Amino acid sequence: MKYLLSDRMQGMEASAIRELLKVAQDPTVIAFSAGNPAPESFPIAEMAEISASIYKNSPSKAFQYGISEGYPPLRELTTKRLKEKLNIGKDFDQLIIVSGAQQGMELSTKMLTNPKDTVICESPSFIGSINAFKSYDLNLKSVEMDEMGIVPESLEAIVKEDNRVRFLYTIPTFQNPSGRTMTLERRKKILELARKYDFLILEDNPYGELRYTGEEIPTIKSLDDEGRVIYVGSYSKVLAPGIRIGFICAHKDIIAKMVIAKQVSDVHTNQFFMMVAAEYLEKCDLDQHILNVRKLYKNKLDLMAGCIEKYFPEEVIFHKPDGGLFLWCQLPEGYDAMGLCKLAGEKKVSIVPGRVFEVDDKEISGTFRMNFSTPSDENIVKGVEILGAVLKEYLKNNKPV
Ligand SMILES: Cc1ncc(COP(=O)(O)O)c(C=O)c1O
């Protein structure tokens, strides 16, 4: 049967790249392509105890409808934590619980854009958000980045010429995929440009608390004193992604509409897991848990970076991030990483070509992303050694394009 699909979905196809990434489903493949937290980082015993007590003591609350804003104790605890940890939350702000940060991006797009409006993404950016934007028939533009984050001149060149820019989407800290962190100076400059050219900033910060080295840098939201920044956070990377709990902190006028959008979308986030998360925040020590997770990931990052230094050819540049879950690598000038990723897959190691993270994934890119949080230590060593050999073979047998 031939189904008549919406224009919006017709334009969204499973790309060739996605096919390439399917190799990671083979259990014999060492997957550096995922972006998952380590399963051993989940606080399973505490969650099990809390879950059992909710089933026993408050089943009717857990199984009943809740409110679209989110379970009130979780909202309160998250609001308090944001203020204490990140100095986020002015008098005009409010918070809504959403079904993961991903929904935060979708709802923000739904309520702030009309078809053909412009949304600006970093180049590269998170594929889940790019796809959310694409599904709203927007004009997506890429802004250049360097090691310090968004290049302000590149952003200004776009917003000067385009009066339909609704928001800039940025992941300023330990960016997915590049691992980069925007400097404080750049954050201030970006906010200044947002004021000058009157656009909003959608700040996505799922990795902010996973810092292994270097100094904390204030979020853009904490620098915002007029409600120009919509801040999206998540418990996915510090507790567990399967519970699907994220949150948005923004001006109360935005949140008021967001509540309606949320109601239309899925009524409210899973009530049971909102209760579990609230009780975890109340009774357990999330800060200590995060310290343990940081230690686990720092060791994995150091191990992977050490192996890269040992096994990769010198001409492949890699960037060791101060936090997050990803390492970003760059082939010498002119090489395309697509062929490399295919060859690596054949040798049972999966990595992600940089193209995936571009608004236009047809453009040639010599970058690729490696994840260090999911593979075991043993597989990190084995996989990087294999990849080193694959890189040497690839660079020897291919010419820059
Ligand atoms: C930058 C970024 N934003 C958002 C998300 C989605 O997170 P959540 O699980 O909270 O929906 C991810 C997940 O990998 C991510 O990397």
Describe the structure.
- This protein has helices at 7-10, 16-21, 44-57, 59-63, 72-86, 101-112, 127-134, 152-161, 184-197, 220-223, 252-266, 271-283, 286-311, 337-346, 377-397, and strands at 30-31, 93-98, 118-123, 139-146, 149-150, 165-170, 200-204, 229-234, 246-251, 317-319, 326-330, 349-350, 352-353, 367-371.
- The protein has 401 residues and is an alpha/beta fold.
- It has 2 domains: 7-42 and 288-397, Aspartate Aminotransferase, domain 1 (Alpha-Beta Complex); 44-283, Type I PLP-dependent aspartate aminotransferase-like (Major domain) (Aspartate Aminotransferase, domain 2).
- An 8-stranded mixed beta sheet has the order 2-9-8-7-6-3-4-5, sandwiched between helices. Strands 10-11-14-13 form a 4-stranded antiparallel beta sheet, with helices on one face.
- The relative contact order is 0.17.
- The mean pLDDT is 95.
- Pyridoxal-5'-phosphate binds at residues 35, 100-102, 126, 128, 171, 176, 204, 206, 234, 236, 241, 246.
Q: What distinguishing features does this structure have?
A:
binds pyridoxal-5'-phosphate; alpha/beta; Aspartate Aminotransferase, domain 2; globular; single chain; about 400 residues; 15 helices; eight-stranded mixed sheet; 2 domains; Aspartate Aminotransferase, domain 1; four-stranded antiparallel sheet
